[in-house]
Structure formats: structure tokens, C-alpha cells
Write the C-alpha cells for this entry.
Amino acid sequence: MSRAPRVRTLLGLAAASVTVVALAACSSGAPASSEAAGDDEYGLVKAGTLTVATEGTYPPFTYHEGGAGELVGYDVEIAEAVAEKLGLEIQFEETQWDAIFAGLDAGRFDVIANQVSINPDREEDYLFSTPYTVSPSVVVVNEGDDSISSFEDLKGKTTAQSLTSNFYQLAVDAGANVEAVEGWAQAVALLEQGRVDATVNDKLTYLDYLKQTPDAKLAVAAETDPSESALTFAKDKTALVKAIDEALAELREEGVLAELGEKYFGEDVSQ
């Protein structure tokens, strides 16, 4: 049995328990439940629910089975496990990457779960949980292309990148001309069609693509030191970040993070 259905089942039981508690409180004239007090403390968009922004088009992190099935993925299951630890329902809001931070700024979501890399610029504007993914960025080229063997070789080349991604900045810093795309799927398609020279992305995304598309004629030309990805919050969500950090620590100690890494990547990618 996959973890996601189990989480939803437990959440359903938790929701039923909350309903019973709420009815009991009403019948006795007691004040709002402790659940509501927690919601106030966390400043959630919707009481009792963790509202999570994610792309839904970024396998294996957040995507739909078969292109149209249930929302699944590594980031999805991490978020579900965290919500379960906090005793909250979970609601995913699928949003294009280029609009995901604007949605967080506007208060439409409580958190982003979409492999957001921690960097100094983002730390000026957002809070981050403890990292749950550690992975290098890689330059992906077509197999047999020997013209690129380092980030420096991207100077004057054309890469396909999401304009607000960390990988976009890496490509620009290396002197590449960037073709704007919405995500990995579009980037790798342009690369395989020979319309761009390379794309910079997360190594785990590349490895998953090879697993799903074993005939792909791609290669890694260069990679950076590992970067860290984490759940991302608005600056006023300090109580929520603290609670989620505690939940992640428990999930790490219980082996759940390692288990999810093994499921999606064949190894623990959380540290």
C-alpha cells in the first residue's frame, strides 16, 4: 500500500475526531477547540487545513499519474506526512511555477512544496523549513555533445529554463542565453529536439526522467555542489515553520524521509 492513501485515511479519521470534539464543545457551551487555537497560532489560510502550493507537473516531485490521475510525488507525500503529524487536513493548490511565489505573497497558500532551493535572495523574502532534499544541479546535454563539459562552457550557448527558478540564475551566471519554459518537461523536449543546447536542472529530476524514459539519449555534462530544498513560507509564519520543523525531525527519526527517498529515487535524498 502506498503511503498517500494511508495518510488520507488517517486524516479522514482525524477529521471525524475533530468533528466529534467540536460537537461536544458546542453542546457543553465550551469555547473553541484546541484545534482552532492551533490554527490561530499557525495563521492558516483555512482553519484546520494546510494549504499547499505545488506545480503538479514536476515528476517525480509533484505530478499526476498517467498525466491525468491522482496528484502524487515525493513532495506531495512529504507534505501529506507533515500535515498528518500536525493533525491537519491538507489541500493542494496547483499553480504554475512562475506564479507560485506571488500566490504565497498574496496569502493564498500556507506553504510551497515544490523542491524550492534555499538561496540567499529567497531567504531575504521567505522562511524555510529544515531541508528535506539534498541534490546537485546538473547541466544536461544531448548524448555525444562534447562542446559542453562545465558550467563555463554554457557561455554563448542556449539553455531552456523557468525564468524564476534557481537553475535559471545558474545558467545566466554562466553566460548562457535562456529560452523561457514552464518547467522540466518543456525544457527536455526542446533539448531533445535540438532547439536548445542544454538545460540546467536538479539531478534527481534528470535521474527520474532516465528511469521513465530509458531510451533517452541524454548525458550530464557538469554538476554543482549539492543544494538544499525545503518547504517555503511567508515571513510571518514562524510558528508554523517551528511546528513543521518538529514534524520533519520526527519523520526523519522514524525513517519516513528515507523511505520516501528510496521509493522515488532508490536512495535517501534527505541529507
About this structure: The two ends are 25 Å apart (CA to CA). The first strand starts at residue 49 and ends at 54. The chain has ten helices and 13 strands.
